[in-house]
Amino acid sequence: MLGPGEAEFKKGQWRSKVKNMKATLTVRDFGGIGIGRKSRKCEGTYSTNFGYFVAMPSKWFENKKRCNKVVEIKRNGRTVTAEVVDECESDSECPNKNSIGASVAVWGALNIAGNIHAAVDVTWSDV
């Protein structure tokens, strides 16, 4: 049985835009300075920790189909939009299948930068 929001997504195709999918937000280094940073999966993207960027797990990244797409992330009444620029490639980047790795700027916009070393619950939607 699919969870909330997952009925809108089917492997290999888009039925409709994902709306209010539950996820866990983790911090991700997009500056290229962190340990083990690789080039981003979405070609032609340049990102920094000061921009609004996210990395998605494989099931949501779907072979680059979400590259350069914008998603809306919500938490506690705050909303931010961010560009999908990469795929999570390890458990440290996205510790569970419903994790999104987000830049420090995304955390700041959601007013949760003080919890940057924790994982927090959010919802996300395609824009």
Automatic annotation (TrEMBL):
Q: Does the keyword Transferase apply?
A: no
Q: What Pfam families does UniProt report for this protein, alphabetically?
A: KWL1
Q: What is its main location?
A: secreted
- Where is it localised? Secreted
Per UniProt, the keywords (alphabetical) are: Secreted, Signal
Q: Into which family does the record put it?
A: Belongs to the kiwellin family.
Q: Would you tell me the protein name for this molecule?
A: Uncharacterized protein
Specify the species: Erythroxylum novogranatense
